[in-house]
């Protein structure tokens, strides 16, 4: 049983990895666990947006179930 948390751009750089497998929990709990494993993420996460199975996630208390994917997206520059 696992959830895939994927990191992009500055979040990937801060974590030093592109993804992590964690036990199902709320989105906030998953992010807390990711920060425990990769403390530099704490600097990036406040500016990030999140996708749960490719759909925008606004409520971090949402339960993330086994087999789901949570994407961590920092703000992107560009035009």
Automatic annotation (TrEMBL):
GO cellular component: molybdopterin adenylyltransferase complex
GO BP, sorted A to Z: Mo-molybdopterin cofactor biosynthetic process
Protein name listed in UniProt: Unannotated protein
Signal peptide limits: none
Keyword entries, A-Z: Nucleotide-binding
Protein source organism: freshwater metagenome
Molecular function terms from GO: nucleotide binding
